Amino acid sequence: MILSGKSRLAGVMGWPVAHSLSPRLHGFWLEHHGVDGTYLPLAVQPARFAAALQSLSEMGFRGVNLTLPHKEAGLAACDRIDSFARRVGAVNTIVFEAGRLIGSNTDGFGFLESLRQEAPDWDPRAAPALVLGAGGAARAVVGALRDAGAPEIRLSNRTPARAGKLASDLDAPVVLVPWAERAAALDGIGLLINTTSLGMVGKEPLDLDLAAFPTRALVTDIVYNPLETPLLAAARERGNPVVDGLGMLLHQARPGFESWFGVAPKVTAELRAFVLAA
Ligand code: ATR
User: Fold this and answer.
1) I need a surface site. Which of 36, 99, 189, 226 has the fewest CB within 10 A?
2) Ligand 1 pocket test: which of 71, 158, 176, 182 has the largest number of ligand atoms within 8 Å of its C-beta?
3) Rounded to the nearest whole angstrom, what is the distance from the C-alpha of residue 196 to the centroid of ligand 1?
4) What is d(CA 190, CA 219) in angstroms, rounded to the nearest whole number?
5) How confident is the model over 197-228, as pLDDT tens digits?
6) Is 71 one of the catalytic residues?
7) How far is CA 145 from CA 43, 119, 140, 142, 245, in A?
8) What is the pTM assigned to this prediction?
9) Does residue 133 have its Cβ closer than 6 Å to ligand 1?
């Protein structure tokens, strides 16, 4: 890779950051589009976060992505925040504009765009959705479903207080479902989303009886390691349409790349294969 003096710079700030797939993903697009630019992994300790962000801006970076544990701190560090990031309570994309830090959250966009690309017949307004989990990913998913016009969002989490807090923060049409009653809440839904870490490599699978899950309803998982979680495998087996969790990761990166590097990138089969080969 040969950079010029005009090279555009961006990166991802995390602690740790070594596991991040973002450098590989942005690197693919940079090469594909022949952009004079680079996207770096930036290991930044939480205590140094605000100072590091300011330095990058002063050094002429175009912006950064934020990953764990910086997404919440990003809210306070930016000069301007989009309304979605404010409601969700986390920033994952920052654009530096003439010394000002403009923060947004593209996780909800990534979630919806992944479903739109891979399940074009799914209509968020047609039927209720069931969201399992109430962490950061669930907040973005519920916010996106609300904005897309979901008539009802059933929300179930092991720790009910966390689901209650999410519902009041997001002003969405949420119906809280006790964790023990999650299987019954599958009845009549059009979309099931697992945002818990259950089903991830090294974790136990999500325990969910799918008997009440309508066969035409879509299911997706935030977990992408493995790509086909036990939940997705069981749903596919009984004939449900299935979208894996990698698409959300890839699509959430699009707005940042376009802002920093000036090209609107696409999520393609080649990109998926390249990222998966990591
Ligand atoms: P993220 O911000 O990435 O969504 P998180 O905040 O750690 O991650 O949230 C993980 C989610 O998985 C939470 O909803 C968590 O439930 P709690 O709020 O009760 O902790 C859920 N989760 C993790 N392990 C679980 C388990 N063994 N059973 C049920 N839910 C679990």
Assistant:
1) 99
2) 158
3) 5
4) 8
5) 999 999 999 999 999 999 999 999 999 999 99
6) yes
7) 32, 15, 9, 5, 16
8) 0.96
9) yes
